[in-house]
Protein 1
Amino acid sequence: MLTPSPVRLRAFRALARARAYSVPAAAHSKKHIVNIVEVGPRDGLQNEKGAVIPVETKVELVERLVRAGVSNVEAGSFVSPKWVPQMGGTADVLKRLTKERGVHYSVLVPNQRGLDDLLLLLAQQQQQQLTDSGSPPLTDEISVFVAATDRFNKANLNCTVLESLQKIAAVTETATKHGLRVRGYVSVVIACPYSGATDYDKVREVASALLNMGCYEVSLGDTVGMGRPHEVAEMLDVVKRSVPVEQLAGHFHDTYGTAIANVLTALEHGVRTIDASVGGLGGCPYSPGATGNVSTEDVLYALQGSKYHVAGRNGGTINLEEMVDIGWWISEKLGRESASRVGRALRARNSKTTTSK
Ligand SMILES: CC(C)(COP(=O)([O-])OP(=O)([O-])OC[C@H]1O[C@@H](n2cnc3c(N)ncnc32)[C@H](O)[C@@H]1OP(=O)([O-])[O-])[C@@H](O)C(=O)NCCC(=O)NCCSC(=O)C[C@@](C)(O)CC(=O)[O-]
C-alpha cells in the first residue's frame, strides 16, 4: 500500500476539513434545517454513579455548550434527589448560569411537586429583579415525560401511563399559565426493558395526548437504544397518522450502535429536531444496560456537507471542534474517555497532525 507523505497527508486533511465546513447555511432550504436539543447536562449526567457532580461543573458544561452554538439545552431536572441524586442541585445550576438570550435552558419536571419547586424559584427571581432588573428568566421551558408502556412508566414514574397523562395535563396547564413552554417525551417507543416490543399505536396515542394537552413538541425516545432503522421508520409511519411530523423529535440511545442510523432515518421521515448528548453521555436509571444518547459530535459530523443544516444559536451553527473538546473535558471530569466516535477520531487525528509537524 502507498503511504502518503506527511505533507500530502496534511494537505489532504486540510482539504477534507475545508470541504466539510464549506457548505454555506444559505444554500440549505428551510425544510432541511435541523435543530439539536442538547440533553447531556440532564439525560447525560443523571445516571452517573459515584460522587455527585459539583454544581460548578454542571454550570461550566452548560455555558460551554451555549458558547459552542447550542440554543436548546436541558440544564437539569426537578425530580426526587432520593432516586436521581445527580440532579439534586438543579435549582442552583439555574441560579448560577449566565443566561444568553435566545437560548432555552429547559428542565425536566416529573410531577406537580417538581413544578411547584420551579415556580417558587421563578417567583423568587422575579422579586429580586425588582431591585436588580434586566436579567432573563432562569428558564422558560419544562419537559414532561411518560412512557408508552405501563411497566416502564411504573418503574420510572411510579404510576400507570393513564395516571401519568392525567398528572401531566395538570402540570402542563399550570406551566403554560405561568408562561413556560412545555415539551413532552415518550419513552420506550421501540422496545421496553420490561415488556418487550412496543405497540406503535400506543406511542401514537400517548404522543397525540401530550400535544393535545399543550406540549409544543414530543420527543420520541428509544430509551433502551435497541431500535433499528427499519423499526424507527415503521414507528414514525404509525405516529405520523395522528401527529404532525413538525412536532416530533427523535431521541435515540446508542446501546446497540444504531443511534446515528436512526437519526438519519428520522430525518428522512421528516423529523427535524434531534436530541443528542455531548460526548455520548448518559443512560437511563430505569433502563438497565442502556448507554448514552447519540453523541452531538457524531450527529454534527454525519450531517456536515449534506443537504441538512444544523441550526445554532443566533442564526449560526454549532461548532464541531468545540463540541469535541467539551465532550472530552466532561468525560475526563467523570474519569473516562469521550464515548463519541467522532470525538475520538478527531482527537486522534489532531494529535497525529501535531506530532507529524
Ligand atoms: C417519579 C417520582 C416523581 C414519584 O414520586 P412520588 O410519587 O412522590 O413517590 P416516591 O416514593 O418516588 O417519592 C420519593 C420521595 O421523593 C419526593 N419527591 C417526589 N417528587 C419530587 C420532586 N419532583 N422533587 C423532589 N422530590 C420529590 C417525595 O416527596 C418523596 O419524599 P420522601 O417522602 O421520601 O421524603 C419520583 O420518584 C422521581 O422524581 N423519580 C425520578 C424520575 C426520573 O428522573 N427519571 C429519569 C428521567 S426520565 C428519562 O430519563 C427518559 C427520557 C426523558 O430521557 C426520555 C427517554 O430516553 O426515554
Protein 2
Amino acid sequence: MQIRRRPPSPSFSISHMRYQVSVPGSEPQNILEEIVWYKETEVQAQREKLPLSKLKQRIDSVAPPKNFLQALRQGKTQPALIAEVKKASPSKGIIRENFDPVEIARAYDRGGASCLSVLTDRKFFQGSFENLAKVRAAVDLPLLCKEFIIYPYQMYQARLHGADAVLLIAAILSDRDLNYFTKIIRALGMTPLVEVHSLEELDRVLSLDNIELIGINNRNLEDFTVDLRTTEELVNARRSQLQERDIVLVSESGLHTAQDLQFVASVGANAVLIGESLVKKDNPTEAIATLFV
Ligand SMILES: O=P(O)(O)OC[C@@H](O)[C@@H](O)c1c[nH]c2ccccc12
C-alpha cells in the first residue's frame, strides 16, 4: 500500500485570491492516510506540551520493561494470545459502551492471555496513553502500545506509560525509519512488532537485521475487508526464511472463532492478536475459553 506521509502542498501560492484552491490529491485516499496526516499535528502539539528532553528524563523512573517476545514464545495458550483493549475503531465505530480498560485487562489476564495490546490513539480508536498506564498498574502481563508511530517521540511516550512492545506499521514507514525505529525501541528495552499486509511489505521487513516478531494484518486498511488467507499467503511465500530466522509470527485482526484460530495456527501463526470479538462480549474471560477449545 502506498501511504503518503503528508498531504501534497500546492506548488504555487495564490495568496491574493479569496478562493480556496483545491489541490488534486489533497484529500486522504484511505483511513491510514487520514490517521497519519492527523498524527502529524497531534504529535506536534504533544511535543509542545512536553518536550522530548523532559519526556526522556521522566522515563528514568519507570519500572523496566517486561519480555514481550519471551511471553509469546512460552505462550500460555497455543497459539499464544495477545488480547486487545480497544473501545472503538474506524471500521466498527464503538465496539463497547461502558468501556473500562482495567476491568477488561483483568478479565483477559484471568482468561489466559500471554500479553495485552492497548490502543492509545485518541481520535480514531478512542484510546489513550492514560489507558496504557492504568492497565500497566493493574496487570503484570507484557503490554503492546498500539499506536500509529511516525516519530521517535511516540516510542518514548509508549515507554513512559509502561509499554513493553511497540507496533510499527510497515505501510506508513520508510525502510530507513523502520530500521531506525526498531533500534530505538530495542534501546529502550522494548520489543518491536512490525506489521505487514502484503508480500512487498514482508520482504521489506525481512531485509532488516534482528527482526524477531512480525505481525500479519488480515485487515486491509484501505477498504477494511478482512481475509484470514492473508496470513496463509504471506507465510507460505516466505516460510523457510521465517523458520530459519526463528521469527515469531502474529496473525492479527478478524479472528472470531476457534476454527479461525486453528486455521491461522495450522498455516504457521505462533500467536494471534484479537480485539473486537473479545471486547464486545460481556465476559471476556469466558470468550477466551470458547476460542481455545
Ligand atoms: O478487533 P480485531 O479485528 O480482532 O483486530 C485487532 C487488531 O488486529 C487490530 O486492532 C489492529 C491491527 N493492526 C492495527 C493497527 C492499528 C490499529 C489497530 C490495528
